Amino acid sequence: MTSRRNFRSLALGASFVAGLSACSGAESPRQVVATAIHLEDQLDTATIEGGAVSEGLAPELRWSFEEGSAGWLALPNHFAGGAAAGVEERDGSLAVLLTESTRAPEESGEQLFGGIYVDVSDFDLDDWSQVEVELRATGPVEWVGVGYNVRETGGDTLDEQWPTVFYGAGTDVQPADDVRVYRFPVSGEGGRIRGSIREVAILFGSQAPATVEFSSVSFLPASAVYSEAGVGVRPVASAAHEDFGPTRRTLYTHTPTRLAYDLALPDSARLDLALGAFGAATRMRVEVDDGGTVKTLLDETVAPAGPWLQRSVDLARWAGRDVTLSLVADAADASAPGVAFWASPTLSGLAEQDPADAPQPPNVIFYVIDGASAGYMSLYGYDRPTTPNLERIAAEGVVFEQAHSNATWTMPSTASFMTSLHHSVLGGLVNDTNPIPPNVKTMAEHFHDASFHTGVFTFNPNAGARSGLDRAVDVFRDFGHRGSPFDPIEAISSEILHAQYWDWREAYPGPYWVHFQTTDVHPPHHPPAPFAGRLIPATESEAIASQILGMRFPFNHTSASVHEHWQGQLASKGIDPLPFYRAMQDAHDEAMMYQDQRLGELVAELKSRGEWENTLLIIGSDHGHPAASYPRFGRGQLDPQPPAWEGALLGEFESHVPLIFIWSGHIEGGRRVDAPVSMIDVLPTVLELAGLPEALIAQGRSLVPALMGDDSWTPEPVVFDEFRIDGDGSVVGNLEVLDGRWGESLEIRSGDSATSPALGRHPAPAGGRWAAQDFADVPRLLLYDVEADPLAIRNVSAQHPEHVADARQRLWRLWEEHQLLAARFEAGEEAEMSDEQLEALRALGYSE
């Protein structure tokens, strides 16, 4: 077995992956390629000629209601028994009034619902990127969105009763006394809407009577995102991909522009990139000037709104020489300027200073199975053969028996393990988003800065851009469905994501870091053939999925928990809960079998291509079962049922997840570590294995000693937390610790308003153990004996008052420590800290 010290000498050293270094003795500094350079990151070293923002870009389309309705009308309500919301012109605004008569039926959300619409002509959605709405909301308005093409009449199904044929995107609304601006994409996560657009509608919903006063509605042109600068970097999706195209981290240049980079090229140098254009046909060239001659290596005219044109440019003939590499963009027609896209322009080669037999950096695959509970995997002892392929794969690595997610749903959990910081430190859930502060470095940023090519492939937006996890990602996709958020396409996410991964791998050399987050196991379950029908008739599993979709929204705002909500929904529809939950478990297990098969195929392909020995594979999950607000089929089968408020984030169902590390020839296989660890430990571990610098601040710790069998390694308590920050500043959530026999769960909230149903609170994720009611007789600190009660459904607080008192103080101190650390990243900026604060961070081990 390799010792930890020797292992680090085998791993890639940070100096090996340094992207750039300056050459001395030149009039202007030149750059030396080591492994790879991301040219879009080197704009400050490039000479830029031209690059002015093109004139004649489309203006915004704006309707102002200062002097009337501007042609906007009340949106019809086709739901059974529903009436259209009232619309009235007011001084400087157009007001829409929601009353009980506008309520939609239970199956569609049971919200008060309304909106306005306007006729449009010659309206092409491809010309627009964002909708901007100025409004003031009075009452518990929850969301606002955009739709297209108003239905004249309703139909029999809920889809046919929805007032618009197409629904685009939307955002959450914060009730306020002043006018606020809300901006969201013209299309939803399902991709581009096709077809002629006749009407545009703005829709919104509320849980109680409310009024929305619109000041204006605007459509921002697609060109607006490129108007801030003549040269810049942003994610861009190929216009040719209707639904599933990943975005590329793209260097864009308005025409005409020349970007010139002074470089010293290494052996086997090559430039890989994809070409695209916006607005008009664009001539794009790659040129090399070696001081004597200028050689054009690539010269193409690229049509706008077309597919990415992947290209590789051979630069090997200039190995060891100083050259100027230029990216040149000109309008094909001088009267029609446009924007050139240079997607993921990566210069790679072999560094001369490294010996021929120098160890290569590992390719890193971080494979997250969304919602995979270890308890339902045969790898972890489940009595159904759900993961035979994973068992074979895991035999080549190390399995952690007691791994835990640090939260119970995707957004807070993924943000935590991608940064090694807890949810409360990152700022919590704000307006249903979880933005990672800009000065917190993500796993992708660590690897991108070390000259790795980076990719993220997921069907779950909560694991992507909504948290800022698209930063420093060269190829990125975080959506899956075509229109309906519950399309069965979600159930075969691994098939689609793997195919896109291999397309990316064909185009770019290593080293690379990739994050998969599949939704095959995510409910509602639609396992494909031949897995559908193995445990339950396919028609029955589809019926269960349909029942779930018919009951999922809204949350009952008087429920004590998500599980109680589902119990009430099943009872109201006369559905026997036990057969329902058993059938849901069967469908879940079939979905797990499908995911397992796809994972086995991915590993087999890596081996057949000769990449396995140089691949570090980490397999984990963001939480246990079920996902977020779906039925708790494990808890639902318990007899007797525990009280609705009983439970904790640290329960077996909620947070026991798989965690496996495999790296052939570097990590000895066939070992299982029976000690508590958590997903927040992944980042420090992967950085050490890859030989990259440690994170400046991390709350997790490296598991390399455990992987290497170091007997001196000892486990530490596992910390869990989920928090929500509401519009009025209320904080509600839980901070929990699992330490040996004991599980301690502390509810933290700022006043009773944090759980007021009148403010629209509901038992949603990141809202604490309960979020709709204030249980005066339930202690804020719940204590669980997890050895006797691993599900955390029978608290023993009354039997251990001294332990409870001590735990309450310890967890409150931990909360204060988290807030101290959070101040470092407050408001997404580096906060000034006093000497006392810095010393406290050092004492806690968070700072040097």
Automatic annotation (TrEMBL):
CDD domains in the record: sulfatase_like
Quote the SUPFAM superfamilies the UniProt record gives: Alkaline phosphatase-like
Q: Which Pfam families match?
A: Sulfatase
Transferase as a keyword of this entry, yes or no, is yes
> What keywords are annotated for this sequence in UniProt?
Transferase
Outline the extent of the Sulfatase N-terminal domain.
Answer: 362-691
Please list the GO terms describing molecular function: transferase activity
According to UniProt, the name of this protein is: Lipid A phosphoethanolamine transferase
Species per Swiss-Prot/TrEMBL record? Engelhardtia mirabilis
List the top taxonomic levels of the source.
Bacteria, Pseudomonadati, Planctomycetota, Planctomycetia, Planctomycetia incertae sedis
